[in-house]
Structure formats: structure tokens, C-alpha cells
Write a structure and sequence with these properties.
Layout lengths: L1 E11 L11 H7 L9 E13 L2 E5 L14 E2 L2 H7 L7 E5 L5 H4 L3 E2 L2 E2 L5 E3 L2 H9 L7 H11 L3 E2 L5 E4 L2 E5 L8 E7 L2 E5 L8 H4 L11 H18 L2 E3 L7 E5 L2 E3 L4
Parallel strand pairs: 3-5, 5-8, 8-9, 13-14
Antiparallel strand pairs: 1-2, 1-4, 2-3, 6-7, 10-11, 11-12, 12-13, 14-15, 15-16
This protein binds zinc ion (ZN) (2 copies).
């Protein structure tokens, strides 16, 4: 398992969990790594590489050439990220896109061609449909670039949950977007959950029912978050989060816990 980090940007805390009186000072005291200067948090952009005997699977692709929602504090180009990890794009057999927001799907293509030329790309059809218009705002840039994948027969729009590769499965977890998926990796009794955008801040682990400004259908997202975090807690799964500055941890009785605790 490798983490590909394209960079991070500080995002304002006061826009995160509208309607909730969050004690950010207390949150910062418990999870200092998650926060930036002043009233901001560190929004990191991670993708994950999973290697198995049957090949390599990439979960999300970062922003690619697209701009982040706020100016980067630190960033690297997608090519530099892959080179730094010693990853040849031709090695990737499957690309699972948790959803089609640009910070997850923007790196799928390079100069109009698939960045991962030997991969099969997996997208839930509800997201493929949603991002064609995004509630009437026009097609997203990431999706537009990915149309070429259809012509090349490299895009799977299978709606079903199940394994994409041995031990690497997708679970429909809608709300953040209609076709949002999380990924569960099972390896010799050890389970790993890659949340996609079920989470942005550790406070959501303690309070999965708090509505998030990032979610297209916030109530539905709460249901997905509650269900998967309960499974992760009961099964003692390792959890990997796309936007956490320290992406790995677990779900304890009182909230997010660092690895090994
Ligand atoms: Zn998202
Ligand atoms: Zn995201």
C-alpha cells in the first residue's frame, strides 16, 4: 500500500459542518496534525496504490492538471508524484474512482489519453450520469476528459458492489455524490477501508450524523458514513482517508484513533 499525495491546501473550518457548534480548539488538541494556521484544516489530496499478486490497483487519481478549490500550500505535479513513488503508470491494472469530483478523478487522463494505459477504470454509473450535468451546471472537466475511455472500451460502469480484483472490493456509499464508492481490502484477515469522501475531518468519526457542506445529499451521506464507520469499528479495520493529513487510523469507541492504538 502506497499513498500518493499531490499536495495540500488550507480550507476554512467555518464552512465545514454548518449548523453545528464545533469546539475546534478541542478538536485541534486531540488531532493537531489535521489543522492548518488560524481557522483552517489541511485538505490533503491522496490516492492509494494497492499491490497484489494479481496486479496493481489505484484508488483515485488526484487532481491531475486541474486547480484545487483553494491555493495549494504545497503541491507536486502528477508525473512527479508517480516518479517519486517509482510507479510506472503502465503497471496499473485497475483504477477505481471513488467518485468523479475532480480531486479524485482529475488525474485519470494525460493530454487526452488514459494516464494508465493498461488499466480498466471503474466508475459507478450514478456518478457518470450525475457529472454529465452536475445539477444543470454542465459537465465536469474530469468527466469530459474521461469520455475517451468509453471509446477505448476502458471504462466499467458496472453498478454492483463486489471485487474489482482479488480481495479488493467496492461498496456503494452514496450521499457525498450519488455514485460514491468506498473500497474494502481484505488481506489475510486484516481489513482496510478506503473511505473516499465519507470523511473530511476527524470530528465526523465521533459525529457521523453531522451534516457536511461537501455532500451533495448530506442526509444520505450520513447514513453511508454511519454504516461503514460502524463496520470499521466492529471489525477493527484500518481506515484510510483521502483528505486527512495522516491518512491512516481506525475507529475507536470515542472517535478517530491513530494507527496501532
Ligand atoms: Zn468529493
Ligand atoms: Zn475529495
Amino acid at each position: 500500500m502506497e499513498v500518493l499525495c499531490q499536495g495540500w491546501a488550507p480550507l476554512p473550518l467555518d464552512e465545514e459542518l454548518p449548523g453545528h457548534d464545533v469546539d475546534w480548539g478541542a478538536e485541534r488538541a486531540v488531532h493537531p496534525w489535521a489543522f492548518g494556521d488560524g481557522a483552517t484544516w489541511q485538505w490533503h489530496v491522496h490516492a492509494f496504490v494497492l499491490r497484489s499478486p494479481s496486479g496493481a490497483v489505484l484508488v483515485d487519481t488526484g487532481l491531475g492538471p486541474f486547480d484545487p478549490g483553494a491555493p495549494w500550500a504545497e503541491s507536486r505535479t502528477p508525473d512527479d508524484v508517480l516518479a517519486a513513488e517509482g510507479l510506472d503508470p503502465a503497471e496499473i491494472d485497475h483504477v477505481i474512482l471513488t467518485h468523479l469530483h475532480t480531486d479524485h478523478a482529475g488525474g485519470s487522463m494525460r493530454d487526452g489519453k488514459p494516464r494508465f494505459p493498461n488499466a480498466r477504470y471503474h466508475v459507478h454509473p450514478a456518478d457518470w450520469e450525475h457529472f454529465e450535468t452536475r445539477d444543470g451546471r454542465g459537465e465536469s472537466g474530469a468527466r469530459h476528459a474521461m469520455r475517451r475511455l468509453l471509446d477505448l472500451d476502458m471504462l466499467s460502469l458496472d453498478p454492483d458492489d463486489g471485487d474489482v480484483a482479488p480481495g479488493i472490493g467496492v461498496i456503494h456509499s452514496p450521499g457525498h455524490t450519488p455514485g460514491h464508492r468506498s473500497v474494502v481490502v481484505s488481506d489475510e484477515g486484516q481489513d482496510l477501508l478506503l473511505t473516499g469522501d465519507l470523511l473530511h475531518l476527524p470530528a465526523q468519526v465521533t459525529h457521523p450524523d453531522w451534516l457536511s457542506s461537501h455532500d451533495q445529499d448530506a442526509e444520505r451521506a450520513c447514513g453511508s458514513r454511519r454504516a461503514l464507520l460502524a463496520q470499521a469499528r466492529d471489525g477493527k479495520w484500518t481506515v484510510g482517508v483521502s483528505h486527512f493529513a495522516r491518512p491512516f487510523g481506525g475507529v475507536g469507541a470515542s472517535g478517530w484513533e491513530p494507527p496501532g492504538s
